[in-house]
Amino acid sequence: MADARVLVNRARIEAQSYRLTMDERPGVEHMTKHIAGIQQKYTQSGGVRPFGISTLIAGFDSSEEQKPALYQTDPSGTYSAWKAAAIGRNAKSAREFLEKQYEGTGVDLGGMGAAKLALRALAETVEVSSSTAEVAVLGKKGKELRYLSAEEVDAVVAEVDADKAAADAARRAAGPPEPMA
């Protein structure tokens, strides 16, 4: 938590400085590069230890369309852009789930669709409830960040559980797969 707090404070200072200098909000990529640069410096400086965290940085880009942007930084200072990502324990399983579900499956990511997809990915590896997950939704064009209440999170989790139970029932009804010849 201490590493995260340091990076967040440094990011806030950079965002304020950028805003004062350029008279506009910094872009998501600019902030990602700044945070990754700090992390990279700490891998080479004597007398300091590297940051022990990866970060996910989300927002809306500064282009005319204001498309959503998601970046991940690593403790080494490298960064990459993603459409959907997960970090932490069981991140590989969650990332594989997101890769399968994100594109080509008709998942609606508007409104609560993205929150539902994120909670479904979490539910693949851990027990999810309002006491174990905190969900924030970034509104259109980055103007509003809203944390879901415990009741809203529990309602989405109940919907995810119902969808999972229905999919399991449909799979059982279809019977075992045909043996390969």
Could you characterize the architecture of this molecule?
The protein is an alpha+beta fold and 181 residues long. Helix 3 crosses helix 4 and helix 4 (113-123) crosses helix 5. It is 48% helix and 12% strand. The protein is globular and about 60 Å long. The chain has two domains: 1-82, Glutamine Phosphoribosylpyrophosphate, subunit 1, domain 1 (4-Layer Sandwich), CATH 3.60.20.10; 85-174, no CATH class. The strands form two sheets. The chain has a three-stranded antiparallel beta sheet with strand order 1-2-3, with helices on one face.
List keywords for this structure.
181 residues, alpha+beta, Glutamine Phosphoribosylpyrophosphate, subunit 1, domain 1, three-stranded antiparallel β-sheet, two-stranded antiparallel sheet, 5 helices, 5 strands, 48% helix
Topology:
Blueprint: H1 2-22, H2 28-44, E1 55-60, E2 68-73, E3 79-82, H3 91-102, H4 113-123, E4 136-138, E5 145-147, H5 150-174
Antiparallel strand pairs: 1-2, 2-3, 4-5
Helix pairs in contact: 1-2, 3-4, 4-5
Biggest sheet statistics: 3 strands, antiparallel
What general form does the structure show? globular
H/E topology pattern: HHEEEHHEEH
Average pLDDT: 86
Return Rg in Å: 20 Å
Strand content: 5-15%
Q: Compute the number of helices.
A: 5
**What is the CA-CA span between the terminal residues?**
55 Å
How does the helix and strand content classify structurally?
A: alpha+beta
Overall structural domain count: 2
